[in-house]
Records
---
Amino acid sequence: MKILERAALLSICIAVSLLGTKFARAKEASMVDDFVLNPSKPYVYLVLDHVGPRKPLRDGEANKGVWLRLVNNCRLPLVIIASKASANVADGAFWVQDEVVPNKPSPGTESEGAGVGYEPGQEDLTEIFLHPNEGEAEVRGAEKAARSSREVTKRPHGYNDGYQPGPQVLKVIPPGGEVLFSLPINHVSKTWHFEVPFRFALKQEGTIRQPYSYVAFFWDDLPDVYRSGASLATQRCK
């Protein structure tokens, strides 16, 4: 009898646990729906508009660029650093602040301790660690790997740290809004990518700083039809 009672109690506990998990997942989905406008897409993302002619803004830049739209897919406004608005780019900017970052080293060249562990249920979160470098040691490792490879093109400076091609302004992107901008085609290659920093346009209260993040664009994000031309343009920017 006790065995049956224990089995029944165990069954009830399992049922309650499964029901709790179901409600937790439903609540999580509801919170995502409340925050994201289109649940099928990230809360902030880049859309490739086209690759085409672009007026060079600094010496040595190619006359070809990558044109993108930064989309705010959440219910909070975002703020980025960009150029002043131009009549030539409707509701957009000539350029936005970006950083050109070496890709993560290939397997076997990472810095010690670069592996990231995760627990069951976190598998879908590990994609964030596939591309960006997590520390200065990995950036140095990526640079060393690039120098020892056949890739001899020098990684360009992004539009940051004093390398901006003109006056900077803050640009607020409202929920559901977007900004069209362009960057030189050589800001992305097989060995580096670019990252556009952003933060939520929320008023800072007290001394606690608001967090910031970035959205990245990689060589793999370029359609095949554009990659050969992008490689040639990058080589001409040595």
Note: Confidence is low (pLDDT under 50) at residues 108-114.
---
Amino acid sequence: MARRTISIGLIVILLAVLAAAPGYCDDPLKKLGRGIANIGTFPMEVLLQISRVNNSDGPIAACTWGLLKGVGMSGVRLAVGAYETVTFPIPLPKHYGPILKDPEFMFEECNW
């Protein structure tokens, strides 16, 4: 009986947090979606960074610096995705804003 009451209480609190999101900023569901998307697309960060470095600095830089930057940024994207997925009901950073903004979602700015 006590477990059921606690479970119902947690569900009610979660629904209240989701419903109370201000209209002028991101909301918990968008934060959850960003987190899941980042977890699902983090390996593509390697290709994205290689492409970006190739476009700005050429193919030799893409094979070296672009690859290293891609591996590092894929770890960052995975960690941020996990953080946003676990903490989606909490309005941090301010007003559920994105931690990664370049790009917020993986394929927003790809030119492939």
Note: The chain has a mean pLDDT of 84.
